[in-house]
Amino acid sequence: MSVDNVANAAATPEKEQPYRDLGVKDDEYQRIRAILGRRPTSSELAMYSVMWSEHCSYKSSKVHLRQFGEKKPQTDKLLVGIGENAGVVDIGNGWAVTFKVESHNHPSYVEPYQGAATGVGGIVRDIISMGARPVAVMDPLRFGPLDAPDTHRVLPGVIAGVGGYGNCLGLPNIGGEVVFDPTYIGNPLVNALCVGTMKHEDIHLAKASGVGNRVILYGATTGGDGIGGVSVLASETFDADGPAKRPSVQVGDPFMEKLLIECTLEVLHAGLVEGIQDLGGAGISCATSELASNGEGGMHVWLDRVPLRDQSLSPEEILMSESQERMCAIVPPQNVDQFMAICRKWDVIATDIGVVTDTGRLVIEWHGETIVDVPPRTVAHDGPVYERPYHRPSWQDALQADAPTAVRLRRPSTAAELHDTVLRMTAAPNLASKAWVTDQYDRYVLGNTVLAQPEDSGMVRVDEETGLGVALSTDCNGRVAKLDPYIGAKFALAEAYRNVAVTGATPLAVTNCLNFGSPEDPEVMWQFAEAVRGLADGCLELGTPVTGGNVSFYNQTGDVAILPTPVVGVLGVIDDVTRRTPMAWTEDGDLIYVVGETKDEFAGSEWAHEMHAHLGGLPPVVDLAKERTLAEILVAGSRDGLLAAAHDVSDGGIMQALVEMALRSRIGARIWVPTELDPFVFAYAESTARAVVVLPRTEELRFTEMCNARGVSLTRIGVVDSQLAADAGASEGAQFLQLDNVYGETIRWSLDELRAASDATLPAALA
């Protein structure tokens, strides 16, 4: 096959190249020519196109993302921050954890199973490339309406992909989200998070240092799957009829990934490598250019040495391929034999494809011809940086003025109406049981899972001797983010932070996956800029640095963008997982309290969405100082053994929290509405900085004094009571949730009818 080499490129400046088909803008192409002093070869153009894509370069978001560094809170817990494959946090006793969340949205729409599966595989490789052993995964997922035909196409495949890949790897899936909203139809969000553990001395970074060190590609062979896949798909909107570009989506092999994990950890722990990089988006183009630019600045690669499973691939296709389960290691010559021996032990193909140089150039040969000769930093780091125009949407003021008042949206005003509202809300797709999803995941493999869905946070034990563990939660309310993206980002941060604290873990650090529409739309760009500003300001106030994450733009079909969805993941540490606080109450007579204030706040609420399909008004107030104080109380309550159970109050308000706690415990409770609150407001308001806590009577005074000392509102609302069956005239052993003082009446629900309402929604829709 004839190949477009550097000499030919220099001699034929006039040759037309299909750069627009690769997503390269006219001015970007001219810039490439200026950098090289000639036209690029077709291989160089392939590299620049994928590395300068929105997905890989963050060219539309860099100017805003800098705030995460500029506003970084002072902390001695952050060991590795933004810029590496994943952030690393010190959790004590010589242990560190690394965690990160990324998107695989567009491939998951094109091919749900493989798109989701390879999203899991890719984030796992980010974690092992840091030197950590992966210990758990999570998956924040968003789909169109549950009854939409395309949801029925996408959702089962995505769930099967997430579960199948993770289960084969033997990693527990401990949390995440499943959210339904019309804006995600045609644009599902498949975000994947992985957390890994390591000792401080095991941390590794992605750099090609040491002139003469070998560049070794190991793992799966390279095929045509994923050529330009996530790089191209995530850098352009789908048209109104669906995805115009359908590159071959990446195909995952979890069994190869398992071998790759063990092989990588062994070579790292043996001290055989100077740098390591996973191959995900942009494949070899990314690995070689990033490793070179982060090290001595030069690398020579023989591309024809790359093991192929499709011998017909051109050099350009090899460079753009996003075939999965591949890694690249920088290995000193004296360690190569041992490195190769370990790869053979794990039945992993390893090939010496290059050498580190000090030339400052990335040179790639193909059968003796030089097809790439570029400054690697211009490919990996010095791509375009756009200051996209942005402005507040013309419709924003009208949206915020349309508040969900009692006049605007009819509210329950009788006991019977509230009784029926509770049943309907319990069955709402966003509040109903997600067991249909989570039962497909192995949540307890490896034996260190302490908490998993449907608990507020996933929690895993890190150190079996001390009980040291970490908790993680992800969250976002896209409706609130649309009402006010600045507040919406803080809202997501606050809830994820609260979810971690309610289990007894101290929040330490943040990762994020920022999902938005097209950055070329000034109104979408305003949403993004405001969300980043809000998250940066919020993290500074809470003292939780952003360790890394992902931006996913172009999530829209035609002109219709998704709800702005800045997913925030929070990681916390707990000294002893045996002291974690579960969400289920267990003992008759234990007292039920609400910590925090309940106000008439329904904008962006699940009630307004489910009962009225309404979105408007100003979001609930987010007071991060109160969130921090609440977290301190919850952590101290767990540490001192004061709490029997606790649950965050968020979507669906206090009533939904109580329903979930009762169903989790299988024990009833008697609840009363505080006299100063309207029963409906008490039940479904979504005010922030609140939690339901359950106290043994012996600890009531101590906990009350703790809250009073911090000026935090504490209201007794009920008692655990398994003996309500007699009052209800039901059979012995029946369990009820009873609500007193409801417009002068008492109403109750059997846990059986609540469970039936909650459990039936997803199976009925997806059968």
What's the arrangement of secondary structure elements?
Layout: H1 6-11, H2 26-36, H3 42-51, H4 54-57, H5 62-65, H6 67-70, E1 78-80, E2 87-92, E3 95-103, H7 105-110, H8 112-128, E4 133-143, H9 149-169, E5 173-180, E6 189-199, E7 214-219, H10 229-233, H11 254-269, E8 275-278, H12 283-294, E9 298-302, H13 315-320, E10 326-331, H14 336-345, E11 349-357, E12 362-366, E13 369-374, H15 376-380, H16 396-401, H17 415-427, H18 435-438, E14 449-451, E15 458-461, E16 469-475, H19 478-483, H20 485-502, E17 506-515, H21 522-542, E18 546-552, E19 556-557, E20 560-561, E21 565-574, E22 591-595, H22 606-612, H23 624-639, E23 645-648, H24 653-665, E24 669-672, H25 679-684, E25 691-695, H26 700-709, E26 714-720, H27 725-728, E27 736-742, E28 745-750, H28 751-766
Parallel strand pairs: 4-5, 9-12, 17-18, 24-27
Antiparallel strand pairs: 1-2, 2-3, 3-6, 4-6, 7-10, 7-11, 8-10, 9-11, 12-13, 14-15, 15-16, 16-21, 17-21, 19-20, 22-25, 22-26, 23-25, 24-26, 27-28
Helix pairs in contact: 8-9, 8-11, 9-11, 17-28, 20-21, 20-23
What does this structure look like?
- This protein has 767 residues and is α+β, with helices and mostly antiparallel strands.
- The protein has 2 domains: 1-63 and 204-383, PurM-like C-terminal domain (Phosphoribosyl-aminoimidazole Synthetase, Chain A, domain 2, Alpha-Beta Complex), CATH 3.90.650; 396-520 and 559-766, Alpha-Beta Complex (Phosphoribosyl-aminoimidazole Synthetase, Chain A, domain 2).
- The strands form 5 sheets. A 7-stranded mixed beta sheet has the order 8-10-7-11-9-12-13. A 7-stranded mixed beta sheet has the order 23-25-22-26-24-27-28.
- A hairpin with a 2-residue loop joins strand 2 (87-92) and strand 3.
- The protein starts with 5 loop residues before the first helix and ends with a helix.
